[in-house]
Design goal:
The protein is an alpha/beta fold. The chain is built from 16 helices and 14 strands. The structure holds D-xylulose (XUL) and cobalt (II) ion.
Length: 439
């Protein structure tokens, strides 16, 4: 097989002292931490759309990176993208990838032609998967780029568009099943609105739920056994995205009886766009038995949009991995780098530098999160902080035994409670974090 990135060697773990930019300093795939190899714990995935398709265009100018990988005509380019993908996965020791239907084959003139192109490329990818042992973390349908989705897909004001989106999702589900995908993602795309002056929000939300129910039932009927995910995002492209954050999505799923069918794919940059920390969104998902998978990236708090940067902030990755550990690790999900190199980082080498940076930031975060758990001071502080719920009146509140009258009697007898309160000690705890992280 021809080598596309001939200048890039197999990326190996060389340890924290290494100055080799094409080596891992913290990600050691075979090292066992907390009873499993890092490879099994981290479950890294590459995003096809950014890595193989994203050329760096923005609203001020065209792309700067060439993602044809030596291909000339349409399908040849897409075969080369697939070859490039598997070479990247291999050289970086990444086991999984994720894609939208439109990332792997270009749209044709009609839906039938588009589907025929997918039928041509899918066996090609399947063959590469068999040869390499690489797996599909999740598939999805791009129901937002084509102009037909200008008013949304499942929430479109026009029923023909709804039908088209359903047809597209049906095919994407079939491909996901054929390639043995562990998950299928609904990211809202253009499912939202800009003004209520032209929007029937009630009908749009009912229709979105209808589309999701149809997709779940069809997926299960063709043997899909993985997780269905919703990926919350508060804004962009629309002003009001319906899947604002984890809490909003939970309320939506519960209203329509879909909560048993979906877990969350939590994205770091989407969390911060919603004015939450990444850790908060992961925690809300975990507490509601909805933690599923992660789109790993980071935003820039000085910019108000989804910059999808490769994650390098180790404090954030540590807090994220702390939540993953608390959730009991990944089952069907994993850490998908929904991230792109900056527009000015346009070379093939930059693809590798950015994945190495992201993987090492998460590997270091995981090592540090494991140390924080082992140290135990943070957990025991929280445990002690709520100790009053373990005995006496607190235990009666938790068990449901205490009535309003009991609580009133107790409070009257006490007279006041201010004297029993202790400090929250935030600064002391932040300093412990630093001491564990930086020694
Ligand atoms: C968009 C986004 C998507 C989803 C998949 O902000 O995150 O790439 O992850 O459609
Ligand atoms: Co994403």
């Amino acid at each position: 097989m021809k080598e596309i990135f001939a200048a890039i060697p197999q990326i190996k773990y060389e340890g924290a002292q290494s100055k080799n930019p094409l080596a891992f300093r913290y990600y050691n795939p075979e090292e066992v931490i907390n009873g499993k190899t890092m490879r099994e714990q981290m479950k890294f995935a590459a995003s096809y759309w950014h890595t193989l398709c994203g050329e760096g265009s923005d609203m001020f100018g065209p792309g700067t990176a060439d993602k044809t990988f030596g291909g000339k005509e349409d399908m040849e380019i897409y075969r080369n993208k697939a070859l490039a993908c598997f070479e990247i996965l291999d050289k970086l020791s990444i086991n999984y990838f994720c894609f939208h239907d439109r990332d792997i084959a270009p749209e044709g003139e009609t839906l039938a032609e588009t589907n025929a192109r997918l039928d041509e490329i899918v066996p090609f990818i399947e063959d590469l998967m068999k040869k390499s042992g690489k797996k599909l973390l999740w598939g999805t349908a791009n129901c937002f780029s084509n102009p037909r989705y200008m008013h949304g897909a499942g929430t479109a004001c026009n029923a023909d568009v709804f039908a088209f989106a359903a047809a597209q999702i049906k095919k994407a589900l079939e491909i996901t099943v054929k390639l043995g995908g562990d998950g299928y993602v609904f990211w809202g795309g253009r499912e939202g609105y800009d003004t209520l002056l032209n929007t029937d929000m009630g009908l749009e939300l009912d229709n979105l739920a209808r589309l999701m129910r149809l997709a779940v039932d069809y997926g299960r009927s063709i043997g899909f056994k993985g997780y269905f995910y919703v990926e919350p995002k508060p804004k962009e492209p629309t002003k009001h995205q319906y899947d604002f954050d984890v809490s909003t999505v939970l309320a939506f799923l519960r209203k329509y009886g879909l909560d048993k069918d979906f877990k969350m794919n939590v994205e770091a940059n989407h969390a911060t766009l919603a004015q939450h920390t990444f850790q908060h969104e992961l925690c809300v998902a975990r507490l509601n038995d909805a933690f599923g998978s992660i789109d790993a990236n980071q935003g820039d708090l000085l910019l108000g949009w989804d910059t999808d940067q490769f994650p390098t902030n180790v404090y954030e990755t540590t807090l994220c991995m702390l939540e993953v550990i608390k959730a009991g690790g990944f089952t069907n999900g994993g850490l998908n780098f929904d991230a792109k190199a900056r527009r000015g980082s346009f070379t093939n080498e930059d693809i590798f530098h950015s994945y190495i940076a992201g993987m090492d930031a998460f590997a270091l975060g995981f090592r540090l999160a494991a140390k924080i758990v082992e140290d135990g001071r943070l957990d025991s502080f929280v445990d002690n902080r709520y100790a009053s719920y373990k005995t006496g009146i607190g235990a009666d509140i938790v068990s449901g035994k205490a009535t309003m009258a009991d609580l009133e009697k107790y409070a009257l007898e006490k007279g006041d409670v201010i004297g029993v309160l202790e400090s929250g000690r935030q600064e002391y705890l932040e300093n412990i974090m630093n001491a564990i992280m930086f020694g």
